[in-house]
Amino acid sequence: MSILTQLNAPPIYLICGGIIAFVAVLCVIFLVRAWRAGVALGMDKGAMKRAVTSSATFSLLPSVGILLGVIALSGSLGIPWPWLRLSVIGALHYETQVAQAAAEQVGMGTLSAAKMTSGSFATIALLMSICIMWGMILSVFFNKKYTQKLTVSKEKAGGGFGDLAMTAMFIGLVSAYMGSYIGGFVSGNGRFTCTGDWTPIAVAAVSALVMAGFVYLAEKKQKAWVESFSVAGSMIVGMAAAVLIGLLVK
Description:
By secondary structure, this protein is an all-alpha fold. The protein has helices at residues 3-7, 10-40, 45-60, 62-77, 80-88, 92-105, 118-130, 134-157, 161-185, 199-219, 230-249.
């Protein structure tokens, strides 16, 4: 029995599907409670219905990015586990990055079903879970106090530490990725030979241009609704660019 057959076995589907179903039920419960709270506050039911409809509509395209992540990881980790990770708490950039790092540490080199063993999968799945659970745990104990500090800081300074921290984090993340792309492109005993793979750089550039287009429409053309589609749209165009470049290079 191959490793993918084991990872796609009915018991794995049952375990992961049960957790996802539990979370889905909680979402429905909170939806009902929120609706009842809105009615109790005297909110207009028509406005509430429009909010529910628009939220559901704007959730469809961004969820395409999550689906793409499940598809991308399913070739090496099976379908149930990526489905669980990206449905409940995971993020596409986090899951792929940590899974690849864990694969390198267990000696696989790259995340591949051909090199996957049950022990490797257990290590990768454990690392993917442990590294992301601290946000939930710390929020239980410190989120209320932290939120109060952010509110006070934002009122005083007009921005606050939270905005700066998030901006710095994303700049660092993008810089790390771009550094690895450039490092793969530049090769040869410390000399700038530019003989490596330039596809990641080109795909990153295309995705950045698409994202810039979404930002332009949202901020300059007052089309704020496009923000809900910016991440998924950039991912889809970037992936299409990668396929196109691969075909042209061949």
